[in-house]
Every structure is written in C-alpha cells, then in structure tokens.
C-alpha cells in the first residue's frame, strides 16, 4: 500500500539514531518500551542508558533489589511500571530461563505488557505482523484519515488497531511500526506540525480540511482531585531524620517519604502546630517548627494535584528509627521528595541554633 511505502521511505531518511534501534534483543526492546510508556524519548533515553549499564541482562535486573530498581527509576513517575518491570524480569529469568516469549499472544501475558508493548516486541524482535498503536500512531491515523472517533474510547481502541493492522507492511512489520511511531513523534507532532514538508500533505484529510488542531479527538478526563500534603522533615539531635516506606497499593508504593499529614484544606501555621504536637514521633519534644515553603509546591499527577508544603521540625531528643541525613540520598523517593532533598541542605540548616 502507498501509505506503508511512503512512511517507511520517510523513516529511512529521517529516523533518529537511538540505542535500542541497534538491536533486536527482546530484553533491550522490552526495557526501552517500558521506559518510554508515558515518557518522551528525550526524558527516557538517560534512564535507558542507566538501566542497561546497571542491569546488562534480564538476570541482572531480576537479581536486583526492588529498592535499587525504584531508586534508578526515580524521576520517571508511574512507579507501577518499575515494579512490573522488576516482577517480569524475575519471572523471565526464573520461570523462562531468561528467554522472552517469541510471539504477541504470549508476550501479552507478561505483567506490565499491554497490546502496544507486546506488538512492538513481537514485530521488532520476531518479525510478527502485529501493529503498534500508541499516542503517536493515533494522531497520525486520525489526521490522515480524518477520523473523529475518540482515541480514549473502547470503540476508538478497536477502530485504530484494526486500521493500523490493515496498513502494516506484513513483509517488514518492524520497520513499519517504528516508522509510524517516529513519524508521529517528530513530524506529525501534537502542536504546530510542519505540514508543508510532510510527504502526506496532498492526501491528509486533516491538513486539506484545516482540522489539524482538532484531531485526534479525546474524551474529557475526569475532574482532577486536589489534595493538601504536609511533609514533616524531622531533625533530631543526632543528625538524623525520618523516612517512612509507603505500604499498600498506590502510586508511590514501596517508595520512601517524610512522615505525611494530609489535610482537607490549606491550614494555618498555628493550627498545624497543634496537629504536629499530637504526632507520635514528637511526644511533646517539639522545640521549634518552621515552614520551608510559604507557597505550596503543586505536583501534578494524571488524576490528582498535590499541593505540598514541607515543615522543618526540630525534636529535642535522639531518634530511635531515624536515618542519618547524610545517607538520605540512598533511598528511593518520589521525585517530589527528591527535589526537596536536593534543595535542602541538612548540614548547613541552622534555623534552631
């Protein structure tokens, strides 16, 4: 089909040189695809380099501690990806003797692997003609064919998958899949694409009907929840602080954070002091407390916005279960906490002196 030939020709002349394109090893392809979920190449590339350096094989990744994996992942967000990555590595190393499934159907059974990732690995590593459909592909197909079906609807999922499957070059599915993804990432961009140099500008419905900014169509997301987080940065007499491991399900599962008090709304200083004095760690040993940031730091997640304040709390005793502030960098923490730790100098902080 002309579409397939045109986009693969474009790819041969315009593709970026990326490390995972130099191999067909399923471990490296799988690793790159998991890292690049919800992540742009420019952000994900350094993480890919770090992971392949620290864990050059699926056995190295499987034998790593979860805290080491989460620490290396720090800053990428969507930490369930890292946990699934580690779990799948252990399964492949221990149950499959280090060999990845060699077809789409069996790849889909792996934890953290959905239709897109299974299609990418199956086509790139095993030449199976199964089409990838990610955000880039949705955009290209929606604009070129003028499709109004919302891409985040069940109908949209089926329609675009079927269309991509009809278009795929069955003789060279790996190149086609990489070509259409690359085309969406660098040519048919979300905002202000340069349609004048696009090889499809004579036949693209969105371009010829002036609908580039309208497509693809996406259903409105649910209302974002606002939450007020107050982190207590304890400072004890023995130069220690407290980090707590988040247990149970959640976006930051198994990551570390400072003790947290969540309030229904932003609180006044005096009212919050009363809450802190009741905290079991303080036990009437509070010497002084200061608010590190007057304005809340807004940390935006896909379904909630965290309005965050850090409170520096001096406690007049030594700690029982604290960690040395000099060792705090060794713990896997959410990027919100990590950014604070980088800015805040525990050694030079002398508010209470």
Automatic annotation (TrEMBL):
<keyword id="KW-0227">DNA damage</keyword>
<keyword id="KW-0378">Hydrolase</keyword>
<dbReference type="Pfam" id="PF00730">
    <property type="entry name" value="HhH-GPD"/>
</dbReference>
<keyword id="KW-0411">Iron-sulfur</keyword>
<dbReference type="GO" id="GO:0000701">
    <property type="term" value="F:purine-specific mismatch base pair DNA N-glycosylase activity"/>
</dbReference>
<dbReference type="InterPro" id="IPR023170">
    <property type="entry name" value="HhH_base_excis_C"/>
</dbReference>
<dbReference type="InterPro" id="IPR000445">
    <property type="entry name" value="HhH_motif"/>
</dbReference>
<keyword id="KW-0234">DNA repair</keyword>
<keyword id="KW-0408">Iron</keyword>
<keyword id="KW-0004">4Fe-4S</keyword>
<feature type="domain" description="HhH-GPD">
    <location>
        <begin position="35"/>
        <end position="186"/>
    </location>
</feature>
<comment type="function">
    <text>Adenine glycosylase active on G-A mispairs. MutY also corrects error-prone DNA synthesis past GO lesions which are due to the oxidatively damaged form of guanine: 7,8-dihydro-8-oxoguanine (8-oxo-dGTP).</text>
</comment>
<dbReference type="InterPro" id="IPR044298">
    <property type="entry name" value="MIG/MutY"/>
</dbReference>
<dbReference type="Pfam" id="PF00633">
    <property type="entry name" value="HHH"/>
</dbReference>
<dbReference type="InterPro" id="IPR003265">
    <property type="entry name" value="HhH-GPD_domain"/>
</dbReference>
<dbReference type="InterPro" id="IPR029119">
    <property type="entry name" value="MutY_C"/>
</dbReference>
<keyword id="KW-0479">Metal-binding</keyword>
<protein>
    <recommendedName>
        <fullName>Adenine DNA glycosylase</fullName>
        <ecNumber>3.2.2.31</ecNumber>
    </recommendedName>
</protein>
<keyword id="KW-0326">Glycosidase</keyword>
<dbReference type="InterPro" id="IPR005760">
    <property type="entry name" value="A/G_AdeGlyc_MutY"/>
</dbReference>
<comment type="similarity">
    <text>Belongs to the Nth/MutY family.</text>
</comment>
<dbReference type="Pfam" id="PF14815">
    <property type="entry name" value="NUDIX_4"/>
</dbReference>
<dbReference type="InterPro" id="IPR011257">
    <property type="entry name" value="DNA_glycosylase"/>
</dbReference>
<dbReference type="InterPro" id="IPR015797">
    <property type="entry name" value="NUDIX_hydrolase-like_dom_sf"/>
</dbReference>
């Amino acid at each position: 089909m002309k579409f397939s030939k045109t986009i693969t020709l474009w790819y041969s002349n315009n593709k970026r040189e990326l490390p995972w394109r130099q191999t067909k090893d399923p471990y490296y392809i799988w690793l790159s695809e998991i890292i690049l979920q919800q992540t742009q190449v420019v952000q994900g590339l350094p993480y890919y380099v770090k992971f392949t350096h620290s864990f050059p094989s699926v056995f190295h990744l499987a034998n790593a501690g979860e805290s080491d994996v989460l620490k290396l992942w720090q800053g990428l967000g969507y930490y369930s990806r890292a946990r699934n990555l580690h779990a799948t590595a252990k399964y492949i190393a221990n149950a499959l003797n280090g060999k990845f499934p060699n077809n789409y159907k069996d790849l889909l059974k792996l934890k953290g692997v959905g239709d897109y990732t299974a299609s990418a690995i199956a086509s790139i590593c095993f030449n199976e003609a199964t089409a990838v459909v990610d955000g880039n592909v949705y955009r290209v197909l929606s604009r070129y064919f003028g499709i109004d079906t919302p891409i985040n609807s069940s109908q949209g999922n089926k329609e675009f998958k079927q269309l991509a499957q009809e278009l795929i070059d069955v003789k060279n599915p790996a190149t086609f899949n990489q070509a259409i993804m690359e085309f969406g990432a660098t040519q048919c961009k979300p905002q202000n694409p340069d349609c004048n140099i696009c090889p499809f500008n004579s036949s693209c419905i969105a371009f010829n009907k002036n609908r580039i900014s309208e497509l693809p169509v996406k259903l409105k997301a649910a209302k974002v929840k606002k939450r007020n987080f107050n982190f207590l940065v304890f400072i004890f007499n023995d130069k220690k602080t407290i980090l707590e491991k988040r247990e149970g399900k959640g976006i930051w599962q198994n990551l570390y954070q400072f003790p947290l008090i969540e309030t229904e709304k932003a609180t006044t200083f005096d009212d919050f002091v009363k809450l802190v004095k009741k905290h079991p760690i303080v036990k009437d040993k509070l010497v002084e407390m200061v608010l590190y940031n007057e304005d809340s730091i807004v940390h935006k997640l896909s379904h909630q916005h965290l309005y965050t304040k850090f409170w520096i709390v001096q406690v007049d005793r030594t700690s029982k279960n604290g960690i040395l502030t000099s060792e705090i960098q060794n713990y896997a923490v959410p990027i919100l906490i990590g950014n604070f730790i980088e800015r805040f100098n525990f050694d030079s902080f002398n508010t209470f002196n």
